[in-house]
User: Fold this.
Amino acid sequence: MGRTATKRERCMWDAHNRRIDYARVSITDRCNLRCLYCMPGDIPFIPHNDILRYEEILRVCATLAKLGVKTVRVTGGEPLVRKGCPDFLKELKKVPGVKHIALSTNAALLEPHIETLSKLELDSLNISVDSLDPETYARITGRDALSAVLGSLNAAIKAGLRVKVNFVPLRGLNDNEILPIARLAEANPVDARYIELMPSDAGNCVKGVTSDEVLAILANEYPDLKSDNSPRGFGPARYFVSARLRGAIGIIDAVSNRFCSSCNRLRLTSTGFLKLCLFHGDGLDLRQMLRGGASDDDIESRIEEAVYNKPESRQAQGGSNPESRIGRMSQIGG
Ligand code: SAM
Ligand code: SF4
Assistant:
């Protein structure tokens, strides 16, 4: 069961001595884009009643925070398509124990909310930009939304928000934009992050580019590129800096590298399933507990028990190997 660090501050540990203090919370499975690698074509959406209400999500977050989760990243689907998302973020900020709040968005609907988010002192804003070319962007995301996305990105930078740009390199689609994306970090104080394509239920209509290939291209362009261990985020990215870059380069090699031994995260799906590992089905149906009248103490102890049993690695018994699929990213939240 979870160890207690001090009387005042609790924290959760799993059976493999990992401290669990980060939660990704998906508030919707819906999205205004249709990225080829995430949500291609027509897909059925989850009925509204099956999605947790904001007050239910806040109750789970309050319990997680009480147990030691310090950072909550709100994601989706696209979180900003859910009505009331900025107000939800305000409430989340007030939850005792939640020290950092973060948002992952495609930014197509973000610009009108920038002022609210900067007043909220959001700790991290991740913006997905899979191309800087309008046609390629539309080809990958299914929507002609690049100018809205770049408008939001610039407004967020101007407002002083801590921005990271997420880019999934795709063979033959946007793999010629690895340097243009890095140039965003040359011109602005933003981190440019390259995410390896993970196999998902979206199918294999696209092929990824390995982190090694991305790093080789970047190292050629920035010969002084060196790894940087200063704290920059809450997740598994490896960061690199260069004198020519105002921001850093982030590499998320979810497929070719393993970061299971330092995994600190939990995922709450929009239907209230507490997922312990991206590559495993195991977890806890919190919606059933929330709607079945479970007490805060019950929920707390079931979460502690589930977290203690977090799978050791993606390949641990019962889990899938990296080549197999992990379900719909839009439902899990990335
Ligand atoms: N809609 C928001 C967005 O696109 O940023 C938040 C949700 S999205 C699921 C979160 C992140 O997951 C995005 O950076 C997206 O690029 C990434 N993602 C989705 N499917 C992926 C996949 N199969 N492999 C790697 N990253 C993926
Ligand atoms: Fe929507 Fe984000 Fe998935 Fe693209 S990656 S379809 S923007 S949820």
Remarks:
- The pocket of S-adenosylmethionine (ligand 1) is lined by residues 31, 37-38, 75-76, 78, 104-106, 128, 166, 168, 195, 197-198, 200, 329-330, 333-334 (CB under 6 Å).
